[in-house]
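User: I'm curious whether this sequence folds into something compact or stays loose and floppy. Could you predict its structure so I can see for myself?
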Amino acid sequence: YLIKGFTLDDDRLKGRDRLADYFDELLARIREIRASEARVYQRIREIFSLAKDYVEGQKETQVFFATMQNKMHYAAAGLTAAEIVRRRADSRKANMGLTSWSGTRVLKRDVTTAKNYLSAKEIDTLNRIVVMFLDQAEFRAQRRQDIMMGDWTAFLDRFLRHTELPVLPDSGKVSREEAQAWANDQYDAFAERRRLEAETAAEGRYLEDLRSSAKTLEDKRKKLPGAGKKRGKKKKR
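Assistant: Here's the prediction. I'll summarize afterward.
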């Protein structure tokens, strides 16, 4: 029994009917992913988990997933995930250069994730690659062919070459650790600037409230009976 993204046990491989059931279930899962409205990265992980030798948590699987993500980032942006973070994380920019984040404002957990810096065009390229993966997976499942992690790597490289998208030649020039350290430093500077800007804005609102309150009091005083009239001088006897 093998624990992985798409579970398969030995009993299910006994007999043609059970083997057919396996591939039918695999096809159903592929079509389920295709119809899903999940974000592109979740769909990518689900597609890769269809591989027969994909075992969640194993070092080989983690290396495979990181390598495939880097290939896809490079195809979409011309940079690996670490290079995207290192180049685009900038404390001086609005929202630190991020184009998406998880909450209502940018937090530290958002700034080390490469996808948060991608443009709409780059996300579109990733979505097109996902469609290619789904087509390949469905085609192999219909032909009753197993899908292995190595197949995904070969599919991606061929697809990128055929579509004239850049193919990652190496592991990149920036390490994950270097990118994360850079992003965290940029976030600290960004958060301090954001804090100071918020304090300045709050002080501005406070002064404006004081001026508004003073004007309101002055307007009320002017409306009082006799307000603004000069008292006459008393006559000497």
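Summary: Residues 33-214 form one domain. The helical segments are 16-35, 40-48, 59-77, 81-88, 120-142, 149-162, 176-222.
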